[in-house]
Amino acid sequence: GAVVSQHPSRVICKSGTSVKIECRSLDFQATTMFWYRQFPKQSLMLMATSNEGSKATYEQGVEKDKFLINHASLTLSTLTVTSAHPEDSSFYICSARGGRTVAAGELFFGEGSRLTVL
Amino acid sequence: LAKTTQPISMDSYEGQEVNITCSHNNIATNDYITWYQQFPSQGPRFIIQGYKTKVTNEVASLFIPADRKSSTLSLPRVSLSDTAVYYCLVGDSSSASKIIFGSGTRLSIRP
Fold this sequence. Notes:
heterodimer, A: 118 residues, mainly beta, 7-stranded mixed β-sheet, 4-stranded antiparallel β-sheet, 11 strands, 0% helix, B: 111 residues, 5-stranded mixed β-sheet, 9 strands, 47% strand
């Protein structure tokens, strides 16, 4: 089946630094990618939607200058947490929606990336 | 965007059949119903998807009544490894359609 890979799976950084998380669709072209964050024992919260070659659409309350999303190709989207602070510590999950190479519209999720900001 | 409502938690025992119901009163004509399973510190995993009536695969069945305002995920003969959070989502398959997660149902299976 289709696979979405995230990297890194875990990252620890110091407050004030920036962290980049990659999301790759390994065997299909993703027309749309979504980024979520999840706090312990809570549901996934949609942060933004990104389409290849265009600017991401952010959900209300999500700072676009804080969470930079780049969707440079049909197989790669990146989320950069800029000037990270401890409150940014969370589990970040990406998902990719297939285009013509997989069942149109089917959604695949990455393994998640756990960010800890000290 | 259709909102979904599920029980916050459920408990059952190994070998039992578990049914988790989801309400989606505002489901649109083009919306599909999809269920995902999530283990701690992992991304959600697709279980089953349907539009109407009944769908069955190797791990679950999905029952959808004619009015499509609710759906029931049925897990036959659960095991300890089925302990997870289960999410019901509704939406169409267009690339522009956002996927919004509800609260999910935390299922605990006991020996």
